[in-house]
Design brief:
Blueprint lengths: L1 E9 L3 H19 L2 E6 L4 H7 L7 H6 L3 E6 L15 H11 L4 E7 L12 H5 L3 E7 L9 E5 L5 E5 L5 H16 L4 E6 L5 H16 L4 E6 H10 L6 E4 L1 H13 L8 E5 L5 E5 L16 H14 L3 H16 L17 H11 L1
Helix pairs in contact: 1-10, 1-12, 6-7, 8-9, 10-11, 11-12
């Protein structure tokens, strides 16, 4: 089969890590008899520098002509919040999510066996293992609600950000979550703030309706503040966690931290139609850009997710994940995950080691 992939290399370490992931895809192609072809798509701060806006016209169309999208990382201090919206990389990220209809963001957080000691939690807690899937709603809520800024007579400037959710939006992310749970340990924890927010009360009622349709899946409601606490107290209790956009933004950073290295975690964003978008959870790390120091594993594992979810190539995805685990088990470390006594390899060498393991 031939698969066409849009590459958004992006800013900072983005180009370096995408290079390694592309090398891995090519190795998979060679080994399993597939061809991957690539289309470069300019997006993020590099696009602002090149054409004056972070989300050039036609970006969504080019992506839609591909079978999947791979994104390195976008952003950096050069294009900060003092810049006009159309120049900020974050604007492009939100726009592409919306334009491709990527409402379901899957962020797995698992402790990899070779790195169990990197877990910052108590040893007893780490020993129970962590293997959870955070499902974040990605195209609704306060991220996309109406914003306003106006003067008041007695309180200076006032701003509002509207959080809105419809039953349709909640139901489709809910269904994905229950389907996902069926393929895992069959437990859904739905996170909300139903003791305060009306959107959360609607969220909860829709999730309860779905829970009845999936009697084989265990279901619980968890308030967001409690979830933040449980994630550090006893993360082993979670299988699939589903939540709205902003809660998911915050909790997914927390979930990634407890696994010990954000440099290892992939993600997938999908809608009802192709292409889905795959990207590492970490950012563009401008401080180490261009120095062959970045950890390419999260991007390489994002490619494994692409093989699994967009192309239904499970054996190929397994091969990539096993190649990563072998590299780690053999003691290879990039700087972000190395202990003082361990030998450090660079981005390119780590990529090469993983390719050789496939
Ligand atoms: C993420 C990021 C983005 C988000 C930012 C960069 C807009 O934090 O993907 O989690 O908040 O969604
Ligand atoms: Mg975030």
């Amino acid at each position: 089969m031939n698969y066409k992939i849009a590459l958004i290399r992006g800013d900072g370490i983005g180009p370096e890590i995408v290079n390694e992931a592309v090398g891995v895809l090519d190795k998979v192609g060679e080994k399993f008899g597939h061809t991957f072809t690539y289309v470069d798509v300019l997006l993020g701060g590099c696009a602002t520098d090149a054409v004056g806006k972070s989300y050039p016209d036609g970006t969504a169309e080019v992506c839609k002509s591909c079978d999947a999208v791979l994104l390195g990382a976008v952003g950096g201090p050069k294009w900060g919040s003092d810049k006009p919206a159309e120049q900020r990389p974050e604007t492009a990220l939100l726009a592409i999510r919306k334009d491709l209809g990527l409402y379901a963001n899957l962020r797995p957080a698992a402790l990899r066996p070779a790195l169990a000691e990197a877990c910052p939690l108590k040893k007893e807690t780490a020993e129970k293992g962590i293997d959870l899937m955070m499902v974040r709603e990605l195209t609704g809520g306060v991220y996309f609600g109406k914003r306003d800024r106006y003067d008041t007579l007695d309180r200076g400037v006032e701003c509002t950000d509207l959080m809105a959710y419809s039953e349709m939006e909640i139901e489709r992310i809910g269904r994905r979550t229950f389907e996902m749970a069926r393929l895992r340990r069959k437990k859904v924890s739905s996170v909300d703030k139903a003791n305060v927010l009306e959107t959360s009360r609607l969220w909860r009622s829709v999730m309860h309706r779905l829970a009845e349709e999936y009697p084989d899946v265990a279901y619980e409601d968890v308030l967001v503040d409690n979830c933040a606490m449980q994630l550090v107290r006893d993360p082993g209790q979670f299988d699939v966690v589903v939540t709205e956009n902003m809660f998911g933004d915050i909790l997914s950073d927390e979930a990634s931290m407890i696994t010990g290295s954000i440099g290892l975690l992939p993600s997938a964003s999908m809608g009802d139609t192709a292409p889905a978008l795959y990207e590492p959870i970490h950012g563009s790390a401008p401080d180490i850009a261009g120095q062959d120091k970045a950890n390419p594993i999260a991007t390489i594992l994002s490619v494994a997710m692409m093989l699994r979810y967009s192309f239904q190539l499970a054996a190929e995805a397994d091969a990539v994940e096993q190649a990563v685990d072998k590299a780690l088990a053999d003691g290879w470390r990039t700087a972000d995950i190395a202990k003082p006594s361990e030998t450090v390899v660079g981005t390119r060498q780590m990529g090469q080691i993983i390719r050789d393991n496939i």
